[in-house]
From TrEMBL:
The lineage of its organism: Bacteria, Pseudomonadati, Pseudomonadota, Alphaproteobacteria, Rhodobacterales. It comes from the Bacteria. Keywords: Heme, Iron, Metal-binding. The keyword Heme applies. GO terms for molecular function: electron transfer activity; heme binding; metal ion binding. This is Fructose dehydrogenase cytochrome subunit. It comes from Antarctobacter heliothermus. Residues 38-144, 182-288 form the Cytochrome c domain.
């Protein structure tokens, strides 16, 4: 019996050690930013493509560059609220370092070493280019500061155990691309990383991770009303020109107007270059059909 108890205790210690290793935060190597200088003008383009204001401005606010946060995102795991990411030193991220910003955006780790919930699309931003990250940081620091405190998430047990998010990351977070570039690296980068299109257009598994076997195959609307349409060619018969025009104007080939959260996405894409919109359209048209 004594030998058995020792083995049980040893197994528990080993299991706990493995669990701590698996769920530990994975941080960036700060040295990779050495020698990089941020350019706020270029950072504005990254900010727009990444849709930062779409989630972090106060709903209904006229000035969408005041990143007070507060927008709610309802899920099966609870309700998440976008935080204040303005340059305010206490309520926002004004006292962060570049390394802390990089950890948050590309690793989903806050300055205290805690995991962010993947309602924040760092699983897409993990592929963000180092220079783009530095440029984005430079631009965000030029924006107005807001002293409004971030609203805490409404997440119950066991999902409120942030350490467990590390296990989720271990299983599902990857910086690998889903599609081959086939000469369209810019389109793939915009869709799979900066614009994080799959966050809405790809269905999820029971624990909230993207089902990459149904990439861009459409998904339930997070708001609980309707569905997000599929973008694969067997479901969307638009031409590349139709897709690019929609991203610029918000009008479909049948002259329906964009609505819902997609209106924010179109507003962002309308400020990008025609080359970027065409690159995204080319990516969409290159998606493989999924069938029924």
């Amino acid at each position: 019996m004594r030998t058995f108890l020792k083995l049980v205790i040893l197994a528990a210690i080993v299991g706990a050690g493995i669990g701590l290793w698996v769920t530990a935060p994975n941080r960036v190597d700060a040295a990779k930013f050495d020698g990089l200088t941020g350019d706020a003008a270029r950072g504005e383009t990254v900010f727009t493509a990444a849709g930062c204001a779409s989630c972090h401005h106060t709903k209904g606010a006229e000035d969408k560059l005041v990143l007070t946060g507060g927008m709610e995102f309802v899920s099966d795991f609870g309700t998440f609220y976008a935080p204040n990411i303005s340059p305010h030193p206490q309520e926002g991220i004004g006292d962060w370092t570049l390394e802390e910003f990089a950890n948050a955006v590309t690793r989903g780790v806050n300055p205290k070493g805690q995991h962010y919930y993947p309602a924040f699309p760092y699983t897409a931003y993990t592929k963000m280019a180092d220079q783009d990250l530095v440029d984005l940081w430079s631009y965000v620091q030029t924006l107005p500061a807001s002293d409004v405190a971030s609203k805490p998430h409404d997440v119950g047990f066991p999902f409120n155990i942030r350490r467990s998010v590390g296990g989720w990351k271990f299983l599902f977070m990857s910086d690998d691309y889903v599609m081959e570039a086939d000469g369209n690296e810019r389109g793939r980068y915009l869709v799979e990383s900066l614009a994080h299109c799959a966050e809405c257009h790809t269905p999820r598994n029971p624990v909230g991770a993207l089902d990459k076997s149904r990439w861009m195959g459409g998904a339930p609307n997070p708001s609980g009303s309707g569905t997000i349409p599929p973008l694969t060619p067997d479901k969307l018969d638009w031409s590349a020109e139709d897709v690019a025009y929609y991203l610029e104007s918000g009008f479909t080939p049948t002259f329906d107007a964009v609505g819902g959260h997609m209106a924010e996405v179109v507003e962002n894409f309308a400020h990008l270059s025609a080359e970027d919109r065409n690159a995204v359209a080319a990516y969409i048209k290159a998606l493989p059909p999924l069938g029924d």
